[in-house]
Design goal:
Blueprint (H helix, E strand, L loop, with lengths): L1 E6 L9 E7 L7 H9 L3 H7 L10 E5 L8 E8 L6 H18 L3 E5 L8 H15 L18 E6 L5 H26 L7 H15 L2 E5 L1 H7 L2 H7 L7 E8 L8 E5 L1 E5 L19 H16 L4 E11 L11 E3 L5 E3 L7 H14 L5 E5 L3 H7 L4 E5 L2 H14 L3 E3 L17 E2 L7 H13 L4 E5 L5 E2 L9 E2 L4 H17 L1
Parallel strand pairs: 1-6, 2-4, 2-5, 5-6, 9-11, 9-14, 10-11, 13-17, 14-18, 15-16
Antiparallel strand pairs: 3-4, 7-8, 8-11, 12-13, 15-18, 19-20
Helix pairs in contact: 3-4, 4-5, 5-9, 6-9, 8-10, 9-14, 10-13, 12-14
The protein binds ligand BES, manganese (II) ion (MN) and zinc ion.
Ligand BES binds next to helix 11.
């Protein structure tokens, strides 16, 4: 779908539908909604008075204009309570309105910049673009039947004040880069594991690198052996698919020696290995590379937006499968930094591959390091599907990541990292063991990673609960969410801003 901003009067627009909005509790809307009501001879006010329209969150009312206006349909979308209004509501309302219109098979849609009185016009344009792009997302690559609905062609954001267009256009560009990257991450993670092997992931990263003129380097098994990446190799040894350590670099600030590091878990299928998972729900583990997809996709948006900062993304990519060569419980592995690891469960594979990727990130001098991983079921148990868990060794970078997520509509909650949790990872036969028992499992996993991060400023985002959703909701679509992309992009943009300010 094409999205653009134009100057004009939405009540005069020729379109298949126009979208206006209503705050909860408003009985006589003013502004564009009021004008549309007049054109419709009071239809909106009557619907409100009759109690059919309340302006609540998620409420969508479709009115046919029957020749009273140039547009064929008007959608009035609820924005909820005025005092709770924010950009996240703009994203959600846009998605809800467009999804209801998609069913009607419309092609050209106009919308006002909802609530731009209270919010920055550029931010609202960005949020509308994100809500539209993310809310209309579908993954139908593998179905051969005709799609249920035809693609919506064009969305125009109509603004009365021409002077605001430049600001809104730059918001739109930001929204487009970020939302399309999120869709790329969704596509990669929704792909079945036979279409998204480590080699396929490396190829997808290569495409991102080509399009964005980024530097790409794929570290193959042989080089992993030379580098001593025994933990990553240990996980990969039960699979017929060769592992890849994908590295992509963006150089936005050649004058600086600093490079922000992203690390994303890229387990393209997690069967659990010899510590095999129950078969029910195992298919969801095709999405165990969602963190890797998020960092690759974030690099595409960063390349597009061109902030003044250097960023390198690393993705250790492998399958976790059981075969005669597979890793076994009680095996001992040696990570790149020389630390030895006793395997308790081969299903705790994410922390193993991340350990070597983090060692490599440190070797490259990346700092701070942000890792994104579908790491633990325990994180999902702790926080549900509402927010991502944050863990780290540096409050400043943790706070920045949380703030970057907040602005994007990706909620992140910090978890404790008390030293005492390390006790649970102690091994009798090696330096550390790869599981810390049932209690505090998300934290002991993070503490495991901390052993490899050492003193580099670091934040770990556990997206096990947030990477997938089982129903359409606001601008989320059933399946993989692409979580992390928007946080990472915002974080890179905000760190770049900081450096300019000095
Ligand atoms: N990929 C899983 C974690 C996961 C669970 C992600 C549910 C998304 C949804 C991870 O590799 C795993 O299996 N973790 C184990 C660790 C345990 C063996 C210590 C878990 O959480 O059960
Ligand atoms: Mn696992
Ligand atoms: Zn896993």
């Amino acid at each position: 779908m094409e999205i653009s901003v134009i100057a004009g009067d939405i009540t005069k627009m020729k379109a298949d539908a126009i979208i206006v909005s209503l705050f909860e509790g408003v009985e006589r809307p003013d502004g564009a909604t009021g004008e549309v009501d007049k054109a419709l001879e009071g239809a909106i006010i009557r619907l409100i008075a009759g109690g059919e329209m309340k302006g609540k969150d998620g409420e969508v009312t479709l009115i046919h204009t029957l020749g009273k206006m140039d547009a064929d349909r008007v959608v009035v979308v609820g924005l909820g309570k005025q005092e709770k209004f924010n950009l996240e509501r703009v994203r959600a309302a846009t998605a809800e309105a467009l999804r209801s219109l998609r069913r009607a098979g419309v092609g050209l849609v106009g919308t006002i910049a909802h609530g731009a009185g209270a919010l920055d016009h550029g931010d609202v344009a960005q949020a509308i673009c994100e809500g539209a792009t993310l809310g209309l997302y579908t993954f139908k690559k593998h179905t051969t039947k005709e799609p249920e609905f035809k693609e919506m062609k064009e969305l125009l954001i109509v603004e009365g004040d021409e002077g605001r267009l430049p600001q809104m256009e730059s918001g739109l560009l930001r929204g487009k880069a970020i939302a399309e990257a999120t869709c790329l991450a969704r596509d990669m993670a929704n792909e079945p594991a036979n279409y998204m092997t480590p080699t396929d992931m490396a190829e997808a990263a290569g495409k991102v690198a080509d399009e964005g003129s980024l530097e790409l380097r794929i570290i193959e098994r042989e080089e992993m052996e030379e580098l001593g990446m025994g933990a990553l190799l240990g996980v990969a040894q039960g699979s017929r698919q060769p592992p890849k350590l994908i590295t992509i670099s963006y150089k936005g600030d050649p004058s600086s020696q600093n490079t922000l590091g992203f690390v994303g878990k890229g387990v393209t299928f997690d069967s659990g290995g010899i510590s095999i998972k129950p078969s029910e729900g195992m298919g969801d583990m095709k999405g165990d590379m969602a963190g890797g997809a998020a960092v690759i996709a974030a690099m595409r948006a960063i390349a597009e937006l061109g902030p003044r900062i250097n960023v390198t993304a690393l993705v250790p990519a492998t399958e976790n499968l059981p075969d005669g060569a597979a890793l076994k419980p009680a095996d001992v592995l040696r990570a790149m930094n020389g630390k030895t690891i006793e395997i308790i469960s081969t299903d705790a594979e994410g922390r193993l591959i991340l350990a070597d990727a983090i060692c490599y990130a440190r070797k490259l001098g990346l700092s701070p390091i942000v890792d994104v991983a579908t790491l633990t079921g325990a994180c999902q148990v702790a926080l549900g599907n509402i927010c991502t868990g944050a863990f780290g060794n540096n409050q400043e970078i943790i706070d920045r990541a949380i703030k970057a997520g907040e602005a994007a509509g990706e909620r992140i909650w910090q978890m404790p990292m008390y030293e005492e949790y390390k006790e649970q990872n102690k091994s009798d036969t090696a330096d550390i063991k790869n599981t810390g028992g049932r209690y505090g499992g998300a934290i002991t996993a993070a503490q495991f990673l901390a052993e490899f991060v050492e003193d580099t400023p670091w934040v770990h985002l556990d997206i096990a609960g947030t990477s997938r959703t089982d129903k359409d909701k606001a601008y989320q679509v059933k399946g993989e969410t692409g979580v992390g992309v928007r946080t990472l992009v915002n974080l890179a943009l905000s760190l770049a801003q900081e450096q300019i300010k000095g």
